[in-house]
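Give me C-alpha cells for this 301-residue protein.
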Amino acid sequence: MEEIIHISSIAEVYEFLNAVKPAHPLITVIRKWPKVGLDLNQLRFTSDLYYLAMKRDISGSFQYGRSVYDYQEASMVFIGPGQVASFSNSKAESESEGWTILFHPDLIRKSELGKTIRQYSFFSYDTNEALHLSEKERKFLNTLVDTIEQEISQNLDRHSQALIVQNLETILKYSNRFYDRQFYTRTNLNRDLLSKFENFLQSYFASDQPLEKGLPTIDDCGKALNMSGAYLSDLLRAETGRSAKDHIHSYLIDHAKTALLNSTDSVSQIAVGLGFEYPQNFSKLFKAKTGMSPSEYRNLD
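Here you go.
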C-alpha cells in the first residue's frame, strides 16, 4: 500500500530531504532534488504548499502529455495545496535541468495575489496537462526565478517580500498566457475533444444517469474525457468562450424543453428525472436561461 506523506511547511520539506535550514520560511527555490533514502515512486504526498516546477530535457517526456502541437524545450507543472501528488526519483528526473518553487499561502495572504490565486486554475490540472514551453518562454521565466532566488538568499528587508511576491505573480500571469497559447496551438486536437464532450452530454441526459446520479459535475465530464475538470473547463472557455458549466446547463435546458412539450409529467417529475434533488432549483435555472418558468414554457401556444 502506498504511503501518503503530508508536508505542512517549507521547513518540513527540508527536514524530509535532510537538507540545511531554508533561507526563507515561506518560499524556496530548489534547482535539483537531492537523493533521499526512499523510493519516491512508492510514495504520495499532500501539502499545504503551492508547487510549481519547470523540467527540461527529460527522457520519456511524453509522460507530461506532449502532443505534436506542443513545444519540446521544457514542461511546467503546478500543484495546489491539498492535492495528492507523486514524484519520480528516476535518473532522468534528478538530472533534468530545471527548478522547483514551493511557497506557503501565508507568503501571499496579505497581497493582491492572495486574493487572485484561485483564478489560476492550472493548479488543479493533472500532471499530464503540463504547460509546454518554447526556449524563449523558458528563458524568460528563468530570469524571474533567478530574481526570486536572489531575493531569498540575501538579507531580508522590508522590500523583500513585496519583490518576491511581485515576481511570483508575474510567473503565474505569464504561465496563464502561455497556457492560452497552448490551447490555441492545439485547436485541431481540441475540436476532437469538444465533439467527445458533446457526445458525453447527449448520452448522459438521454440515459437514466441523471435520475440515478444527479447532474453531471465538471469533474465527471473531465473524467469521461481522461482529463481534469479544471483543464476541460479552461479548454472549453478558450475554444468556445463558454465554461463547462454553461455547456452542461445548455444541454440540460434543451432536454428539459423536450420533456416539457412531449410528456404529461409534472415539472417536479421532470426536474427529478434531469438530476435535480430540489425541483425549485430546476425552475430557477430554467427561468434564468429562458426568461420564463417551466410551466409558462409548456403552456406557450
